[in-house]
Each structure stands twice: as C-alpha cells, then as structure tokens.
Amino acid sequence: MQLTTPDSVIHTESLLVELGGLPILREISIEVARGDLTALMGGNGSGKTTLVRALLGLIPHQGGQVELFGVASEQFHDWKRIGYVPQRGAVSIKQATVREVVATGRLASRRPFSFLSATDRRKISAALDAVGLADRAARRFTELSGGQQQRVLIARALAGEVDLLVLDEPFAGVDLSVQDSLAGLIGELNRAGTTVLVVLHETGALGPLLTNSIVLREGRVIHVGAPPETADHFHERPLPPEKPLLSGPIGEVG
Amino acid sequence: MGLLSFAFMQRALIAALLAGITSPAIGAYIVQRRLSLLGDGLGHVAIAGVGLAIATGTAPLPMAVAVAIVGAVIIELLRQSGKATADVAMAILFYGGLATGVLLAGLVGQGTGTLSNYLFGSLLTIAETDLWLILGLATAILAATIGLMPQLFAVCTDEDFAKVMGLPVRFYNLLIVVLAAITVTVSMRTVGLLMVSALMVVPVATAGNLLTGFRRSFALAMGLGVVAAIGGVVGSYYLNAPPGSLIVVITIIGFVLSLPLAAILNRRHRLEPVIEITDPEPLPHETTHPHTDHEHGPGCGHLAVVHGDHTDYVHDGHRHAPHGDHYDEH
What's the domain range around B308? Predict the structure, then answer.
C-alpha cells in the first residue's frame, strides 16, 4: 500500500514509539520530500534522536507507520540509499585510518568475503574529496579534530549510493567557525541533490539553507514548515526557581 | 636444532604457531570494542569444560570448546539485554566456571596438578588428535576474522551505523564472542586458560602503538603473536617453565619496548594543540613582562599552541604570542 507521492523520502503516519513502556513519541506524522533540507528541532528530551532512531529502524515503533522512499519500513531493504551520521560520541574507533573508517560506508553494497572493487575505491575517494579530507586519508581517525572527525563520519555516510543523509546533531562539540564550514558542506550536498534530515538544537549556521523544519516538544510535533526565526521561541519552559536545600531553623542559606 | 627432533616439541611448536596467529586476530576486534577482558572471562568458563572432561574421562579440548561456546552465547545475550545486572551475572559466570572446573577435577582425585597444564600451558600434553582439531578451528577463526574484516570492524566501531547499512549486527556480535571462545580453547594448551587473554590483547596494543590503520596493525599483531608464542615455547623447553608465563612475559616486553619507539614514530607527525578563536573581538593588547633572555620559536622548548592564525608559546602558565619586538599575553 502506497500512501505517498513518488517524491516522498520519509513519511510517517501517527507514529508511536515507547521506551520501557513509556510513550516517548506520539502521533508523529511527518513528511520529508526529495530535495528537502529539513531540520528536526526541539529542546533536550523532546524526542529528536528517538525519532531519528525509529525512522532508521534502530528501535521498534509500537504504532503507526514509517515509509522510506515510499516503502513501508518493514519491507525496506535498500539501505545503501540512506547515509546515517550519528553523534560523534557514539562511535568508538580506536585504531583505524580515515580511509578505513570511510570504507565501512560501502558495506551496504558489499558482500561478505569480497575485496574492495574499483567502484568501492572510487566511491571512497569521492566521498573523501567531497568533505575535503582527501589529504588526511592515511591519518589516524583519533588524531583529527572534532570538526574533522565529523567530516569523516559524513564521508562514511556518503560512500554508499546515498539519496538521503540523516545527521544527528552534527554541530555538537565543534566550534563556531567549524559549524559554518560543516553547514556549507551540508548545503552543498543538498544542492547536489541529496535529501537531508538534520537533528539540530538550534538552526545556527544552517538556518538560511533550510527548506523545512519540524519542531518537537515532549514527543509531539508542535511546528512544521518554515524554520523558526529564533531558536529560543521553541525552547523548553524556564525551570521553576530553585528552592533552597536547607531552610528553617538550621541556619541561613545564601 | 635438537629440540625439533622431539615429536612433542614439534606438536607444541605447531600449536604455538596457531595460537600466536589466531589470538591477536580475534583480539583486534575485542580491543576495538573495548572488551579487552572478555578473553579472560571466556578462559575461566572454559576451565569448567576441562574439569568436566577430567571428571568424566573424556577428551578435554572438545569439551572445553563446547562449554566455552555456550558461555560465549550467554555472555553476548546478557550484554545485549543491556541490563545493569548483566555485569554481575557475567562475573558470576566467570568465577562459577573457574570454581566448577577446579571442583570437578578435585572430585576425581586429580587435584590441580592435571588442571594446571591447562591453566598455565604445557609442552607435553598436546596429542596428535588435538593438533588436528586445533588446526581446523584455527582455520575457521582466520577465515572469519580476515574474510569478514570490514563487517566485523564496522560492527565493533559503530553498531548503529552498521545496522542502518542493513548488516545483521546481532549475528556478527555473536560471531565475535563465539570466535573468541574458540580462540581461547585453541590457545589453551600453549598459553593456558588463565593467561590466554594476554596473547589476544597485548600484541594488538603493541601493534597499535607502532602502526597506523586497522589492517596493518592487525597483520603486525599476528606476527608479534607468533614471535611471542614460538619464543615462549622454545624458551620454556630450556627453562623448564610453563610456556604460558614466558609467552605473556615476552608479549609484555614487546609492549614496553614499543612505547619509546611509538613516541619517536609519532613525533614526526604529532599535531600541536589547537585553540580556536571563536570570539571575533580581538584580545586587549597586553604585553608580557620583559622578555629578553629567550626568543620563542619552533623547538624553543616551550609548548607551542596553534591559536587561530598564529602560534602561542606556553611560558610559566601564560601564553605568549610574538608581536613585533615583544610578546603579548594571550
């Protein structure tokens, strides 16, 4: 059953995701179309990362439906079309060159017990070129700066036959000038035809490049459409004023 | 060489060669996944298999293989469950295995005498039938660790990414611990179950110090493993010591030697620490205290820090930036 237009890349219908019996995401119905550069936004604990993980099939959903490229996620097998860039802290790479890390991005189309083909090598080099790290290919991954590691993870995702790039907080822990250059890179990839879904805390440098945004709060979609002007508008409510830990007759609390 | 004329030494050397190749081969993945002590735990579990074989009068090697594989599957299922109690459950499994083995061997009056051949390795206990089984298992381990290198590497470094690429991550995870269990038993006669983990982990760490890249250090680790295993067996023949202890000592000597070597190798392309400038407002101009006796520059002895478009030198807790004929505080 196809509910969506041929241009649909991600489509969800009343998605429900529970973790440990608690509903974390409710009634999520979103749409990412081909060529979009969509930001998935929201404060801490709003369910951004959970939604991305559910879309990618990393965690099961308890209700509703997810479609990838017009195919229900249960029947979807064309994983080489999706490039996933997890948060940098989620990877544990101790001993590997940049090229070896990027090479793992070819595995969706490689068979076990096979050597790298000429196509594999070409794709790996092209991915390294795209992120501007061809000259670092033989370096240790762990020697690179945070921004460069983020680029390597993007290159790894690009090494497949990627139509959709999903990035989880690519700006976490990299400084402002590096954020600008990463945003430039993401914008370039999008202009070249890659659909992008990017989890962001604030629009930051990507703001002007976004074509769409989805804002979550407490596991529900509260805004779809034009990117929010100021990120603060969608932030969590201010915390209640802190109560002093000690009060009463014991002593004064400063 | 006189020692090659003994059939038992020929068998011991072949077993050492296989243990030396296979242990670092699976160890490379285990280290990458930060499970360096997994081999140690599996060794403890395998002791139960040896004890069981001694108690029932059957062949120890196949029994150890079977028990270690069962233990490996339980460990992986516990790990995948992600429960906080999994950690304690694993500890119970490991020490339960060790205690069961010692107890079973003791019950049939063998005590720890026979068992110690398996705990610390022995030159004399490798029968010809064992050797064939070891050869078969080692071949399987090498085929999987080399043939599936890209897949296993991907699963060890980033499970989520591997899953999104459609790899059967649970299967590969299980394969890694089962291969580790088999490796433990392959190396049991040579290194001993209590020390087998060292041969899986230490050559990998040594190779990682010396070479860049997973594949290259993987190959070097296997070479180092073979040198240590053969060296340990030959040495123990002359010293009349259990080979396991000598093998482990040799691997650790190799590791210690690799440290200064690594420092020299890495100096060539060591990066200077970087402090990015994020605030567009320039720093207020503040000159340092008079600074005439020393000129900062590359190799001047002070730590160099790349600060935006220039280099600062750390001096008594200050960062000094060259500015014309003087230095600024940064």
Answer: 274-329
Q: How many domains does chain A have?
A: 1
Count up the domains in chain B and report the number.
Answer: 2
**Would you say residue A250 lies in a domain?**
no
* A96 closest CB neighbour out of B162, B167, B214: B214
- Name chain B contacts of A58, Cβ cutoff 8 Å: 160, 163-164
Q: Both B156 and B299 in a single domain?
A: no
Distance of CA A183 to the CA centre of its chain: 13
- For residues B52 and B156, membership in a common domain is answered with yes
Residues of A whose CB is below 8 A from B146: none
Closest by CA to B71, choosing from B50, B42, B98, B29, is B42
Q: Which of B318, B330, B327, B317 is nearest to B295 (CA)?
A: B327
Query: Distance between CA A1 and CA A9 in Å, rounded?
Result: 15
Task: Identify residues of B whose CB sits under 8 angstroms from chain A CBs.
Answer: 28, 31-34, 147-148, 150-151, 153-154, 156-158, 160-167, 208, 212-215, 217, 269, 271, 274, 276-278
Whether A224 contacts A233, CB under 8 Å: no
Q: Cβ contacts (< 8 Å) between B158 and chain A: which residues?
A: 86, 90-93, 104
What is residue B108's DSSP assignment? T
Single residue among B218, B236, B267 that ends a domain in this structure:
B267
Nearest CB to B160; choose among A58, A77, A156: A58
CA–CA separation, A72 vs B291, rounded Å?
Answer: 71
Q: Residue B65 is part of a domain; what is its CATH number?
A: 1.10.3470.10
Nearest CA in chain A to B204: A95
Write out chain A's pLDDT in tens, 254 residues: 445 567 899 999 999 999 888 899 999 999 999 999 999 999 888 999 999 999 999 999 999 999 999 999 999 999 989 999 998 888 888 889 999 999 999 998 888 888 889 999 999 999 999 888 999 999 999 888 888 899 999 999 999 889 999 999 998 877 788 888 889 999 999 999 999 999 998 888 888 899 999 999 999 999 998 887 654 444 444 445 555 555 545 444 44
